[in-house]
Write a structure and sequence with these properties.
alpha+beta, two-stranded antiparallel sheet, globular, eleven-stranded antiparallel beta sheet, single chain
């Protein structure tokens, strides 16, 4: 009788344990090395876009800045830029007229100030499915190291960017979009020294299909001010991403019913033993 009772409770424990894992899934991690794999322009990735190593995830990008439409300080219209410039050593950067007037470009993704006006460079990455960003690596960094240098924004759709060529759109418009799912700001390094290895990690970002990454942008920071920074610039090297994997076990209903049945048998045998 004792052996049967022990067997019943052991079986119950095993089945309940198995049932508790029926719906579990695991995170899958990937690294998008932009220097090795290059980049592909476009609002939406296709099978002709870049396929991230060891996955079925595709990625494309577009670049954006509130420059180029005109050189006047009063023009804050966000305009799609020509794309990213590639360097095997330094990484990927933007070339545009950040300052207006006769001032030159830093050839970085930056938030330089020129003619008493800040211009913000940002890169919009579009993935074929929802992913979470885990880290960003940079091969080049310049500017002040004691302030926020990076802004990262998740979106569930990018219609506001797609319509920017037909509608006057500003960073203020984009920052107030209902499509935003998350926003974070980071300091990359307190000792930027130009060429080097820099990394920022994101332990808590939720998944999104579109990620806007660029120089610290005060329009996305309600606590930020133009007086809070003096300007930074960087060149991208890679993105770390994760996604939810498939279920690791088969989800079945039988263990629940079997567990209840064994529990009933166990209780019955236990009560019978006490009466004997």
């Amino acid at each position: 009788m004792n052996k049967l009772l022990k067997f019943s409770f052991s079986s119950l424990l095993l089945i309940c344990t198995s049932a508790s894992y029926a719906g579990d899934s695991m995170l899958e991690y990937y690294n998008y090395d932009m220097i090795a794999q290059k980049v592909s322009k476009g609002f939406e990735p296709t099978t002709n876009s870049i396929k991230i190593d060891n996955s079925d995830i595709y990625v494309s990008y577009t670049t954006w800045a509130d420059t180029e439409y005109s050189d006047t300080d009063g023009d804050d219209r966000v305009v799609r830029q020509n794309g990213l410039s590639y360097s095997k050593t330094y990484g990927l950067s933007m070339r545009n007229r950040d300052h207006g007037g006769n001032l030159t470009d830093w050839h970085t993704i930056d938030n330089n100030q020129g003619d008493w006006k800040y211009d913000f460079d940002m890169v919009l990455f579009s993935f074929s499915e929802e992913v979470a960003l885990t880290n960003t690596k940079f091969n080049y960094l310049t500017g002040a190291g004691n302030e926020q240098q990076l802004t990262v924004v998740g979106f569930n759709d990018i219609d506001i960017f797609k319509n920017a060529s037909n509608t006057v759109t500003t960073w203020e418009n984009i920052a107030s979009s209902s499509a935003i799912t998350s926003v974070t700001h980071k300091n990359i390094s307190r000792t930027p020294q130009g060429l080097g290895k820099y990394e920022v990690t994101y332990p808590t970002l939720t998944e999104a299909k579109y990620w806007l990454i660029g120089a610290y942008n005060t329009y996305f920071d309600p606590n930020g001010s133009m007086d809070d920074f003096t300007g930074s610039g960087f060149k991208l090297a890679s993105l770390g991403i994760s996604r939810q994997g498939e279920n690791t076990t088969t989800d079945v209903n039988e263990p629940g019913a079997m567990a209840l049945m064994l529990m009933g048998i166990g209780l019955m045998l236990y009560r019978r033993k006490r009466l004997v």
